[in-house]
Amino acid sequence: MSYAKLICDTLYNNFIIAKIDIFTILYCINCNNLAKFGAFFYSKSPLISYLLIMNIRYKQASKEAKLSLLLTIIYLIAWIFTAYFGSDEKGLLGLPLWFELSCILVPFVFIILCWIVVRVQFKNIPLEQTK
After folding, report:
1. Hey, what's the torsion of the CAs at 13, 16, 19, 23, to 10 degrees?
2. pLDDT under 70 in the chain at which residues?
3. What is the pLDDT of residue 106?
4. What are phi and psi for residue 90, nearest 5 degrees?
5. Long-range pairs for 70-76 at CB < 8 Å and ≥24 separation?
6. Partners of 97 in the beta sheet?
7. pLDDT in the model for residue 130
8. How far is 41 from 48, CA to CA, in rounded Å?
């Protein structure tokens, strides 16, 4: 059992308020001991309240950034595939098919896809610090 986990468990079990270093707090947060650690201290310590809120914000922001990067990579692959491997035949608008696919259809599909991802996966979280 590590030193940080021992302190976290001791604080929870005995309600001992002791001087805690930042590494112990981060350890408890990263090891999913939020319920243990935050239950007693959440309203008593502004530092821990701030760290718990920031942890939630960072997880959500990281998830949104990963989704955005994934959508960007998929868009780039789709655009390259349709632009370079499309035929020179005329499309519905009288333009070359590769142009219609890569510059009209793919952007339209990804606008709809991005709208769906934002509506389903992104959350409106407050960015300012609460006291």
Report:
1. 10
2. 1-54, 127, 129-131
3. 96
4. -80, 140
5. 71/110, 71/113, 71/114, 71/117, 74/110, 75/106, 75/110
6. none
7. 62
8. 7
Q: What is the pTM assigned to this prediction?
A: 0.56
Phi/psi of residue 96, nearest 5 degrees:
-60, 145
Q: What angle do CA 32, 56, 38 make, to 5 degrees?
A: 50
pLDDT for res 22: 53
What is the per-residue pLDDT for 14? Answer: 47
Supply φ then ψ for residue 50, to 5 degrees.
-65, -45
pLDDT at 116: 96
In the chain the first and final C-alpha atoms are separated, in Å, by 34
Determine the pLDDT at residue 39.
Answer: 45
Contact 21, 8 (CB under 8 A): no
Tokens of 124: 């409106």
Which amino acid, residue 121?
Q
What SS3 class is residue 31? coil
